[in-house]
Structure formats: C-alpha cells, structure tokens
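Service request form, structural biology core

Requester: graduate student, group of Dr. S.
Request type: structure prediction, single chain
Budget code: on file
Notes: please return the result as structure tokens.

Sequence provided:
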Amino acid sequence: MDIKAIFEASYDVIYVSNGAGTTLRVSSACERLFGVKPEELIGKNVRDAEKQNIYKPSATRLALEKKQKVSLVQETKCGKRLLVVSIPIFNENGEIVRVVNASRDITELNKLQEELEETKNLVQEYKREVLQLKKEKESHDKLIFKSPQMEDLVNFAIKVADVNSTVLITGESGVGKEVFAKTIHDSSPRKNEVFVKINCGAIPENLLESELFGYEKGAFTGAYKRKLGLFEQANHGTIFLDEIGDLPLPLQVKLLRVLQEKEFTRIGGTETIKVDVRIIAATNKDLKEMVKEGKFREDLYYRLDVLPLHIPPLRERREDIPLLINNFLAKYNQIHVKDLKISNEAMEALISYDWPGNVRELENIIERVIITTDNNFVKLEDLPGGFRQNIAPISIHVSEIMPLKEALEVVEERLVNLAMEKYKTTTAAAKALGISQASVSRKLKKMRFLPHF
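Core staff response, request fulfilled:
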C-alpha cells in the first residue's frame, strides 16, 4: 500500500508540514474533523489556519517552537476535540524539515466523561436529598401525637419554619420544647446549617456570657486564645436558647442587641461581629409575670414573643398518651431485647396519671417497667405505687362526642387486651370473644404497631 492510500484510508487526521509550518499533505479525514477539504489546507501555513480557528492550538506551531514532540488536545471549527501528537523530523544539521501530526477524535470520549461526571453529581445530589428527607422524617417522627391541639401546633411550627422571625416556645418541663425547636429548624431553609442549643439555666452566670458571645485573647485570666461564642458558631443556622427565663439581666441587654442589630462584641474585644442566625427561645416560666417583677426585660420579651408557641401539658391531651406509650414500648423493647406489651389496666392507670414531668417522665417510667418486668405483659402491679392509686375499675365511660368508629376501636382494644390477660393464648381469647384466632392476631398486631403521627 503506497503512502497516498494510507492517507486516504486513515480514520485519523495525518497532517504533514515543512520546517516553516506550511502544510504539505493532509489526509481526507480532515474534512470530517476540521470542517475543510484537504486542498483548502495544502499550501496554508499552520499559523494562518490557527488564526482562522480551523484548529487551535496548532500542535505543529508548538513543535516548531519547542523543537520537540508535542501532545495536546485540540479543538476544531466544527466542534470536535482531537488528541494530537506532533513529531518534528530533523536533518543532519539539526534543522526541522518536516512535522508529522496524528490527530484522533476524542469528542465522544469527552462527552462520555462529561456525562459520567454529570451522573456522579446527580447521584450525589440525590444522596443529599435522601439524607435530608431522612433527617426531616426522623425529626418529625419524634413528634408523636393524636390530639387536635398538637396537630395545630405542628402545622404552626412547619408554617413559621420558612421565616426568620424569633419563636418563643413555652410549656412545662418535659413537654418537648427542644423537639419542636429542632422540627422548626429541620423544616426551614437553614436545615443544612448548624443547630446550636444551650441551656441558659445550666451554666453559671460568670461563664454564660463567654459561652454565648465568646472572648478575645487576654480578655481575662486564663484566656490564652480567642474563643468563638455560640452565636458565631450558629452563623447562618439556628440557635436554641432553652430556659431563657434564667438569662441574667446584664446578658439580656446583649441578647436584645443581637435580636435588633444582628451584631455583638466578644468579651474583651472592640470588633463588632455581624451574624445571620435564627433564634428560637424556650421557657417553662411565666415571662410576663417576670417582666412585672422586674426580672425580665420588657423590650426583650416582646422581641422574643414574635411567634409564640405554647405546648400543652400531657394531662391536657391524654389521647396522645397511648401513642407515646406504644412508641416508647417499641423503642425500649428493642434496646433491652424484650417483647413486652402493656395490659389494659396498666394503660388505664398511665392515662389517668397527671404526669407532672410530662413526656420525659412518661418515657422514663416505660423504660423502668420494661427493665423490671419479667412477664410478657406490663400489669398494673408492675407500675410504681403512685400509678395504682390512680386507676378506677375498668368501665366504658363516654364524656364527650367522638367518632363512632374511633369509639368502637377503643372498646375493641380493651376487650382484646382483657381476653389476652385472662386466657393468655390467641386461640382461647378468640373463643371467648366469639371471633377467629386470625382476627385476634391481626388486632394484636395492629394494637402493637400503632402508627407514628
């Protein structure tokens, strides 16, 4: 096969120039890859072709300038990307007499690499979204309720999550103020930023200011280096100030400045620090009364109370108690590798109790009885003494209108529990109730795995 046949048969561009850069010969593949015919290039200097953007950069020009082999990626006027190897040929005097280029089309390879990179980025984005959805679901799953009051509060919390206004959460100890604060954060545009929490009543007054606002090196004895406060750490995120009613009056002034101006100064410093932070505060105290007594600044109170959210105590939403009990049963059964269920009498006692410690106290009691109970059922006698005094004889008592279907489910659950306590097996319980054993099993399963709202 002669040299001409090789040139014409080659899928790649073979490009030959002289020592001055003038094109001597080029294979027919140039029409497909350069967008010009061979005869349009022959006699043309590679520098002129480069200026006309037929291809750039010119590998031949660089090989002539560097007097050595050159490899590079070249772009052509028709949008192709070529991998070019340019080899100079020298005479006996060390002068370049020819430059031979071989150019291979890598456009599709680059497209594949770009598509692969886009796919990787897309997968990473999906992973981030899935993790965020999981995080939000875990946060919302902690809010377990059935009562209309709680449903209204959750809807309110999700609604106010989209704005940056301050939220003041009030309620007795143990009602779940931090859970609500975290739900607001996780439902907000700041959900991918930090959530910083501090209990204002748990830190001594002389340390609280430095925790919140930080200090400069040398601000006091022992301040060997600068420390960032929690407000700086929470920048672009959310800070949760629990027990805000315990904040000393001098620090209330500093907090008011952060709320009004979004700025503060570190202890021992002169620089004004600007922050972008969402503030959620919580307290179990009556701040209005504290304002009257001069223990809490009135201007700070109104700055905090922009979006008030009051969580009712557990005794005012008793319909939530069975759901919470079943949730804690499932949680601590798994932790302690048990499979305990709760008897009807024990459930009635727990529902009747006033729960001064609210959800936190309820969770502690459920964990305790799971650890200390040896039977398959948590019975009334397994509860602490105070609970046994709370229970009245089991009876069906209707004090308000409720959906008939819901009432039937409550009665059905009590009857099934009573039958299982008395007869121990689903077969015997089914016979006593006049239903099939499969029906009893289904009802027990449904009662055991109550949905999380």
